[in-house]
Write the structure tokens for this entry.
Amino acid sequence: MIDLSHLRADFPILHQQVNGQPLVYFDNAASSQKPRAVIDSLVHYYEHDNANVHRGLHTLSNRATDAFESAREKLARFIGAATPEEVIFTRGTTESINLVANIWASEFLKPGDIILYTGMEHHSNLVPWQLAAKRSGASVQHIPVLEDGTLDLENINALLTEQVKLFTCVHVSNSLGTINPVKELCAKARALGITTLIDGAQAVGHMPVNVQDIGCDFYVFSGHKMCAPTGIGGLYGRAEVLAKMPPWHGGGEMIDLVTLETSTYKAAPARFEAGTPDIAGVIGLGAAIDYLETIGIDRIHEHGAALTSYAMQRLTELPGIRILGPATGDRGSLTAFHLASAHPHDLVEFANTHGLALRGGHHCTQPLMKRFQIPGSSRASFYFYNTTAEIDRMMEILHRAVTFFS
Amino acid sequence: MALPDDLRELYQQVILDHSRSPRNQGQLSADSCVHIHSDNPSCGDEIDLYICFNDDGSICDIKFEGQGCAISQASTSMMTEKVKGISREELTQLIQDLQQTVLGQGEIRNPEALGELQLFESVQKFPQRIKCALLGWRGLESALSKNSLSRS
């Protein structure tokens, strides 16, 4: 396994005791920690360059605008967009999906249309579509999930039909760790003229992502799961698709000409970015990309896969454990499990008193928990600053928990 | 590494014992019995309470089914052992005292009636578990008002 433990020095938060024990932070799928470089970029912006973007003719505004737009260029390159104009800044994955489920859907969904998603979507990629279906008279259908945590694609041709107007799928499942064959699915959808949206919340910053290679129309993600601040994220939209979409929020920055009667609007991305944006957040996101690129996204992915594989192998030591998701093959850097002897909340509570941060519950995937007939699960999710020594520490704590609760 | 004291207090032997072997499990099927379903959607804990009332509003029999964490299941199991046969006024007082024990607010009027339920004061240190400890008790409150309504 490649050793990235020297990078821990870049993360001030990791060097603390929680409940009298050294912190082991395994809740990265919920939110990652921030390196000094990202924190410094926020301080630097507020101490030196703070001003509104795209408006002023003064030096500070120009500096802020340059930093803001250069982050957009970095992000476009990072995810393989054809141009920076295909990248819209949002508050994160949830807002990005809601933008498409409101604006794209309002223009293109008609009664009788079908929205196809999968049984392993996060609530944020289910609820907006259910709302869109209700508004438009369309209906929702889903691709089922197999026992091994992969998609049941046997009947895909019966599900992915010309009646489907939008197909959406999570790139990496936040509960199962499954990496879905999004490129193949998008190719199939595209051949039928179906618009596609991929939820990359657990993928971007964790593995190489290239939206043009995937061939999707929309790709959505959050900054805070990839070392950037909370409250900033992105929506990639293929230029051709964005051009056909009406504006979202009305306000400053998204307009060309405003009269007291009517207005004309700018093209993307400004069309979808009304109002003063989260400038510091965008700059922080740019700093996060710089930081991740100095490590190398391939190495981050390789390290995450190795940690996950080691954790899954060690977890099988625990009696009565059921590990969710694919047992082998390439996975996202997380593993969720259910122990017969301890409810996830008791287990996570026990872990927390030992300084170990896990997630317990349904992970915003209630339909998936129902599918596997469990009330919830406990999840350990990793990032490049985690180590096998920390997994050993987790196992020590989990063994004690099993003894305690059995 | 020793077990942290807070954890020992939260999961005392009595609580672990009730969570492993909950008392009064099952359903009551009489027509007059009140059925209440309570859940914590954020964590998936569920309790189904079945309660038969006497004419004076006291509880003649109580059973429950549920799934969830040790705290929610033990709290409900211990509740079912306490509430049978006591008067309606005592029941109301018990519910109030239990809530104040868990929340750490207000005066406990009848600590003796609470008995081992006083152990749940440890939940005060774990605010995210308050709703677990109160899940069955919220169901009991709903059952009491449902029963009062059906009689008025």
